[in-house]
Amino acid sequence: MKRHAGGAWRRRASVLVAIVAIAVGGAVVISPQSASAVGCSGHTCNGRDPEANGCDTGPTQTRTRFSKTVDDMWTYQLRHSFACLSMWGRFIRDDCSYPSPVHHWLRVDTQIWSLNEWRPYATQVDDMWGETSNCNGGTAWTPMVPGQENTRSRLGWGTNVSSSPPSSWSYSGWYNGGRP
Fold it and tell me: Would the N or C end of the chain have less CB density within 10 A of its end CB?
């Protein structure tokens, strides 16, 4: 899965369509939803890439629910897309001096409210090692989990010197899904 900042081509394509339509004499109205069309919603986002599906754009559509910076060297985040009704973990490499053999693992656990209790729903786990060649703000992320109404998610993080998941995890609190 390709992980890097981007998504500008989608915005440019929407602007180009509007310019061409106006040039041939038509009027175009672009709603915020059509300008940033998304490729999935809720449970259909499970396991998908947030950038490739247009879920990572727009400050009013995406927000950071949890953020933890460690030693000014890296940041772990739980992201929530209101447009896609999904959540994912994001890793930001803030400093070029941290040891490169360290594998940073993120996991996002989601539960769904069903039969009067929270039940396991979806989990995505991913190794961030080698995904962030840009060491001053380079980002990598996990696949998405559902983040619609009646769900809640939490971010787990851990490190290991091997490519195996860590034996213990640190966790954020739980954050509810759905729209603001």
Answer: C
